Automatic annotation (TrEMBL):
One of its GO terms (cellular component) is DNA-directed RNA polymerase complex. Residues 100-177, 180-456, 812-860 form the RNA polymerase Rpb1 domain. This is DNA-directed RNA polymerase. NCBIfam families: rpoC2_cyan. One of its GO terms (molecular function) is metal ion binding. It comes from Capsosiphon fulvescens. SUPFAM superfamilies: beta and beta-prime subunits of DNA dependent RNA-polymerase.
Length: 957
């Protein structure tokens, strides 16, 4: 490829022939090259000719799109299948409880994102290999119309969509426009499309307002004078973020003027002070130094907010020194504001399709064995996708040796692992080609581009929480099944009381054991105990809704004693107390309690109404009738084992008596909660699981396929294996769960909250708030990173080693650099190039003021906001006046004004009044008898004067 750096070996007479296709970038390079080499006139002629050639050939070519031009890569199906396999694996891991919801979601997004990128790359490879003159390919890659994102949507795969909140939907659009979308895909697309439209409508206004504010704060900045003679300047370096280079130094210094001469190692002059840096010089300088001291508008000494030509450097439109009179403030404001508007449109054109950044990966180049020569400090972490990795804290090296027949074939290959990388391999681990060795983490070292979110995980089914993995509860179930004495109550309360809630940080997971919840009204006495089996429509409890005593209590002596068991049905004729029952009625003993010699019976009739309640005294052989409560009782909707939740202290699960307070919760272990397998008497050979064991999804319990639902083994006999359905939930270190062991949850009730960090969706729509935050010096609510607190912190630091005056200057320089880097980071991450000098002009307006802390004898007031230059001047003036008193000088601290505030702080009032709050500013101006010296452009526009700007207006001094 031919480079368009002006080549000194070419001379004017040489005919130059570029035999290569010219895209937009190349044409612009050509014009640039011609401009810098042959000047304006020749370039205009060249452009004219280019235009004629372009029109003529475009007309004869007549490029248009046909449906056959949309060629789908043959490998697409393979890629999609591979992704689906990976996702299947992810799903299994999630079901097994090895991943949290967030991690599993993250993996889904990542897998589809990578697949979409792969398909996109394949599209380009296919076009380049088979069809270079394809109209789609030509249009997108010439830079004329369309971009790779649109091509991807046409012939690749549309990819992931964002929902209206900006969250990514984990259902990718696998089709492209050529294939056509399915109904579901179409509906999901609508979210993204609508978001695009709404964003465009809302954000154009926002970015337009940003431009307006920028213009207002910098409109009066005009180039005046040739040289302000300052020796000051700023250092420029490469801006990088982690291991990623954001803005190269060689790119940054082009068009700047050196503030200090640069010498090479052997003291030969490379570039001298006040020399402007061309592209060639820039590459020469960067060979010798990584830090260049250049003149800057930030340090220009020209007063009244003007700048000098040398401090500004090149006018970027002409690539030579800026002419005097240029309104560089407005140029700066527009240069920063315009890309905002542009990028807002870009979101619209891509139709809301998500394009996340794929993290940098270090993959093995061949099969081999990993080894490290020295240990690296770091710690084991769980990555956002649920992998366990080693987070390095220093730069380190990884070696990979190739192994064949136990011999080292080649010298090992050295991989550099930057600090804050995630290592996925261990010492002496064998790896295969293309295996990921490490990942350069993008957001662990950069604090401001990630946002914290949290997500609550809800239970799929109702059931009991179990933190304990060797639960004794179900061993009792087994014994009970075997003894078949189903009426024998089994108390769960002991287990619950002894198992205390485990600390979340210690336990990595918990299980929800399935059970159905039974609803009821206000109960008094339950007829069932923990562990009982109940049938459908069995009486569950006595409700005190209708409490009607029928008879007074009385006593009767009897001779014939009969006992009745709990649950036994009794014919009234057999009853000892037949006299008091109607004949031919069946009753059920529903409560039979025995204390000492007294048997207490509670009986209900067929209609489930309590009909009798009496006590039988064994010693006295007497029956004592108690108050008969004509109560309504409720019947069960479920069938199975009863489990009471230890919901409160008012309910005694042993006595089944409910006194007051919140209702107890009752659960029933129904058939729906159980899974069973026939073992055909071969339990030992075919079934490896043990009683009480938690079995995860996918485990082969008996021969055949793995189970499709995790569970716990509650019974294992010769013939049958019974498991209770259960689901594991992983508690990562960032999880928060307020449940304890033994708690019951209903279906869809919250189980735990996971907090996590996500990268911000990488588009300017998210970028604009960040730019605004910097330009407006807003407080950041989450972390104390507001510009003002930063500058204050730095000021305190500098005060320890410098004089106060120097400390202010130094901290101002520090914060200026911070803002510039921050703004450049946001724009560069969007692929937008903005020259530093534009940002510098704006930043200078924000940081030129200081706040008076103590006025001394200057006549200023505490809290006054004045120009830094002015504050220093006043202090210097005091030196001349009186040398003996030190305390007289004022003290001040650096502050950062947001652009809105800064523009309202300007000395005149007309410009401010035309910006916002007109009435307030005009009335204040009138009240304080303010004057306007009409120094800016706006003021003169308002009054209809000639503009005090424009080249040729001022004579250069
Ligand atoms: Zn200057």
């Amino acid at each position: 490829m031919y480079s368009f750096v002006p080549n000194s070996s070419l001379n004017h007479q040489d005919k130059i022939f570029f035999n290569l296709p010219f895209d937009k970038k190349k044409v612009s390079d050509l014009i640039n090259w011609s401009f810098s080499k042959y000047g304006e006139k020749k370039t205009v002629d060249l452009v004219e000719k280019l235009k004629s050639i372009g029109y003529s050939h475009a007309t004869s070519a007549g490029i248009s799109l046909g449906i056959d031009d949309l060629k789908i890569p043959a490998d697409k199906k393979v890629f999609v299948n591979e992704a689906e396999q990976q996702l299947n694996f992810t799903k299994q891991n999630f079901e097994k409880g090895h991943l949290t919801t967030i991690e599993s979601f993250g993996r889904v997004i990542d897998t589809w994102n990578k697949t979409s990128e792969r398909i996109k790359k394949q599209v380009i490879i296919d076009f380049k290999a088979f069809d270079v003159l394809n109209p789609v390919f030509m249009m997108a890659f010439s830079g004329a119309r369309g971009n790779i994102s649109q091509v991807r949507q046409l012939v690749g795969m549309r990819g992931l969509m964002s929902d209206p909140q900006g969250k990514i939907i984990d259902f990718p659009i696998q089709s492209n426009f050529r294939e056509g979308l399915t109904l579901t895909e179409y509906v999901i697309s609508c979210y993204g499309a609508r978001k695009g439209v709404v964003d465009t409508a809302l954000r154009t206004a926002t970015s337009g307002y940003l431009t307006r504010r920028l213009v207002d704060v910098a409109q009066h900045v005009i180039v005046r004078y040739f040289d302000c003679q300052t020796l000051d300047g700023i250092y420029l370096t490469t801006i990088s973020h982690g291991s990623k280079i954001i803005l190269k130094l060689s790119q940054r210094i082009v068009g700047r003027v050196l503030a200090k001469s640069i010498y090479s190692e052997n003291n030969t002059l490379i570039a001298y002070r006040n020399q402007d840096i061309t592209t060639e010089l820039a590459s020469k300088i960067t060979l010798h130094t990584s830090k260049v001291f250049v003149r800057s508008t930030l340090t220009c000494k020209v007063k009244k907010k003007y700048v000098c030509q040398l401090c500004y450097g090149w006018s970027l439109a002409q690539n030579h020194l800026v002419p005097s009179g240029e309104a560089v403030g407005i140029i700066a404001a527009q240069s920063i504001g315009e890309p905002g508007t542009q990028l807002t449109m870009r979101t619209f054109h891509t139709g809301g399709v998500f394009s996340g950044s794929v993290s940098e990966e270090i993959r093995a180049t061949h099969n081999g064995k990993v080894f490290f020569t020295n240990s690296t400090p770091g710690k084991l972490v769980r990555t956002a996708y649920g992998q366990i990795a080693f987070l390095t804290k220093q730069d380190s090296f990884l070696f990979l040796s190739q192994i064949t027949n136990n011999d080292l074939l080649n010298s090992p290959i050295k991989y550099q692992i930057p600090a804050y990388s995630l290592l996925f391999v261990k010492q002496n681990q064998l790896v295969i080609k293309q295996q990921i060795l490490a990942e350069v983490s993008t957001f662990l070292n950069g604090e401001n581009q990630s946002i914290s979110s949290s997500e609550t995980v809800y239970s799929d089914f109702s059931g009991m929480i179990s933190f304990s993995l060797n639960d004794t509860l179900h061993k009792k179930y087994q014994t009970k099944l075997e003894s078949k004495s189903q009426q024998k109550p089994i108390s769960e309360s002991k287990l619950i009381n002894t198992t205390k809630r485990k600390l979340i940080s210690n336990s990595s997971e918990f299980w929800v054991l399935s059970a159905q919840s039974e609803t009821f009204l206000k109960p008094v006495n339950f007829y069932c105990f923990n562990g009982d089996f109940i049938q459908y429509h069995a009486n569950l409890y006595k409700s005190n809704l209708k409490f009607v005593p029928e008879k007074k209590s009385f006593e009767k002596y009897v001779n014939n004693i009969q006992y009745y068991d709990y649950g036994q049905s009794v014919n009234s004729e057999q009853l000892i107390t037949e006299k008091y029952f109607r004949k031919n009625n069946y009753f059920s003993v529903i409560n039979h309690q025995k204390t000492d010699n007294i048997h207490d019976f509670l009986m209900v009739n067929n209609q489930h109404c309590v009909s009798n309640h009496f006590q039988f005294d064994y010693e006295k052989s007497s029956i004592k009738y108690k108050q008969i409560e004509k109560l309504k009782s409720d019947s069960s909707q479920l069938q199975g084992e009863v489990i009471f939740a230890k919901s409160n202290n008012f309910f005694n699960t042993d006595l089944n008596q409910y006194t007051k307070g919140p209702l107890p919760k009752m659960y029933v272990l129904t058939d729906a909660d159980l899974m069973s397998w026939d073992l055909n008497g071969q339990s030992n050979q075919s079934c490896k699981v043990k009683l009480g064991q938690y079995v995860r999804y996918g485990t082969k319990v008996i021969k055949g396929n793995g189970i499709t639902q995790s569970g716990i083994v509650i019974s294992k006999t010769k013939d049958k294996l019974v498991m209770r359905k259960a689901k594991p939930f992983l508690l990562a270190s960032n999880g928060d769960c307020s449940l304890s062991h033994g708690d019951f949850v209903n279906s869809q009730s919250p189980l735990l909250t996971l907090s996590y960090k996500t990268l911000k969706n990488d588009d300017i729509v998210q970028g604009i708030p960040k730019i605004e935050q910097l330009f407006e010096a807003r407080e950041n609510m989450k972390n104390d990173h507001s510009l003002n607190s930063l500058v204050k912190k730095q000021f305190e630091l500098y005060k320890e080693s410098y004089t106060k005056q120097d400390a202010v200057r130094k901290s101002v320089k520090y914060i200026q650099q911070y803002i510039i880097d921050g703004i450049q980071y946001v724009y560069q991450s969007q692929g937008v190039n903005i020259s530093d000098k534009h940002v510098e002009i704006i930043v200078k307006q924000m940081t030129s003021k200081v706040k008076i802390i103590s006025p001394g004898n200057t006549g200023l007031f505490t809290g006054d906001i004045v120009d830094l230059d002015w504050a220093e001047l006043v202090n210097r003036a005091l030196d001349y006046e009186n040398n003996d008193n030190e305390n007289k000088k004022s003290e001040y601290e650096p502050i950062v004004l947001g652009i809105t505030k800064a523009s309202l702080e300007t000395e005149g009032f007309l410009s401010a009044a035309s910006f916002q709050e007109t009435i307030k500013i005009l009335s204040q101006a009138a009240y304080f008898k303010k004057r306007d010296f009409l120094r800016g452009l706006k003021e003169n526009v308002i009054l209809g004067h000639l503009l005090p700007a424009g080249t040729g207006l001022f004579s250069t001094t």
